[in-house]
Amino acid sequence: MATQNLALVGVASNTAALVTYTQRACDGKDIQYVGTNTSDTLAAPRIIDVKLDVKAPGLTGNDRIEVSIKHTVLDSENLPHTGSVTVKASMPRVAQWTKELTISLLKQMADYLGGASATVSGQTDTTGFPAKWAECLIP
Questions:
Q1: Residue 18 and residue 66: Cα distance in Å, rounded?
Q2: Torsions phi, psi of 25, nearest 5?
Q3: Distance between CA atoms of 29 and 43, rounded to whole angstroms?
Q4: Distance, CA of 40 to CA of 18 (rounded, Å)
Q5: How many CB atoms lie within 10 A of CB 33?
Q6: Rounded Cα gap, residues 4 and 33, in angstroms
Q7: What does the pLDDT profile of the chain (139 residues) look like in tens digits?
Q8: In 10 A of CB 126, how many CB atoms?
Q9: How many of the other CB atoms lie within 10 Å of CB of 72?
């Protein structure tokens, strides 16, 4: 499999502030991307880990995917601190479960995570921040 690159929208929500990644590893079930922006270092990386558990044709059970995005920063004493967001999906392998049901769930999650921007009480810097999450994360 050829190495793949990713460019994802960062905090500024525009193409001028893309966070770029290049594929570091892929073994069929696990894929890892590492950040390639100038601020990314070995000591303070950005990492995307993708884990796949897809059933072979004819088998029953659930197909699963997990995506975790991590960003590490160093403090004034050069100690690392990592934040992360992980999303998991599990879809049944039965005739009644359609591609449309999967797409519907994924679109609902995307809408929930990226809901309308809002300013949270007492904060002025939440423009563009997903409102539903801001209410939970910013006191």
A1: 22
A2: -150, 150
A3: 26
A4: 13
A5: 23
A6: 9
A7: 566 888 887 765 555 678 889 999 999 899 999 999 888 999 999 999 999 999 888 888 999 999 999 999 999 999 999 999 899 999 999 989 999 999 988 887 877 776 544 444 555 555 555 665 666 666 5
A8: 19
A9: 18
